[in-house]
Amino acid sequence: MTGIQRTLLAIAAFVAVAVGSFIYFIANWDASKAEPIGALRNASPFLSLEIPRGPGQRPGPALTTGTTA
Hints:
The protein is mainly α.
């Protein structure tokens, strides 16, 4: 077996494992155990949905030493 054939065989094996693991993941998916995507937006430490900011708007007040994020 030449080096090219071994390389192609390794690539084919990698693709087979990747496709197989994806199919396994989809086949065993349980939607009742998954958290809705909308719930993730409120949990982000980077987004403040209460005070929307846009271009040209001033940033919020600075945090004091007693305030935690």
